[in-house]
Write a sequence for this structure.
């Protein structure tokens, strides 16, 4: 893996060497404000070079080993992983797993042993018998609205999930997710989509950072882009802060431009 931007001022040995996990963790560290209690929402997505967010309903065909390493590092740094219910079903989500490489770093940061998974769902049509709900190291969260189906709320709580209310109707109000999670001590936030959830969060103006892997593969087809939803009135500017490359894959990192 090599850094394309910012351009390194000095050579650092083999530019194509595999980065250590600690190096990746330092490169993708959350801002200090997140540790101080100000929530920071990071998105991590992969796209084909022709703009598809998945192939056959799953993102893995667009990925490679380096992308999966970064995926694991971003999870290792997060307090909570926010994901839409449809993505949970399509990607067959499981609980986050403990990784010895991040144990000391997480303990020093005052984090739980693994990030919690937070599932965003209005209908609560979820299979609460899945390991995501029955076998997590830390309780899975279900983010929903105040008027979500009562039967679903009962099932979620009986499965051991923590219900987070972030909306006055059945659905979730995207702008309320960050403060509701921060109130529970989750400030290093990571969303893995899918495209519809990320589109809602982006349209609400609450995404602080986007980590986007561009795969050197095309899919054609009709898969959605990484952000899917109604067009916003004015395009939002982002600032490119980092760009890495390996085997034709580009790993970019963008932040919202200062206003």
């Amino acid at each position: 893996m090599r850094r394309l931007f910012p351009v390194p001022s000095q050579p650092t040995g083999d530019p194509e060497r595999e980065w250590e996990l600690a190096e990746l963790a330092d490169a993708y560290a959350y801002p200090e404000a997140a540790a101080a209690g100000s929530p920071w929402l990071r998105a991590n997505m992969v796209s084909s070079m022709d703009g598809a967010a998945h192939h056959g309903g799953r993102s893995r065909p667009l990925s490679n080993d380096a992308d999966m390493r970064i995926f694991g590092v971003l999870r290792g740094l997060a307090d909570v992983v926010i994901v839409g219910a449809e993505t949970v079903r399509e990607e067959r989500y499981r609980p986050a797993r403990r990784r010895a490489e991040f144990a000391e770093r997480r303990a020093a940061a005052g984090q739980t042993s693994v990030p919690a998974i937070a599932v965003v769902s209005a209908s609560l049509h979820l299979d609460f018998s899945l390991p995501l709900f029955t076998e997590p190291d830390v309780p899975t969260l279900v983010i929903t609205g105040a008027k979500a189906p009562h039967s679903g709320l009962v099932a979620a709580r009986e499965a051991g999930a923590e219900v987070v209310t972030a909306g006055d109707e059945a659905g979730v109000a995207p702008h309320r997710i960050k403060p509701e999670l921060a109130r529970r001590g989750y400030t290093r936030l990571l969303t893995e989509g899918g495209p519809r959830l990320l589109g809602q969060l982006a349209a609400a103006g609450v995404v602080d950072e986007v980590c986007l892997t561009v795969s050197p593969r095309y899919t054609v087809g009709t898969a959605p882009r990484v952000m899917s939803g109604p067009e916003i009135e004015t395009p939002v500017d982002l600032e490119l802060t980092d760009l890495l490359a390996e085997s034709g894959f580009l790993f970019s990192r963008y932040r919202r431009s200062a206003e």
Remarks:
- The longest strand covers residues 40-48.
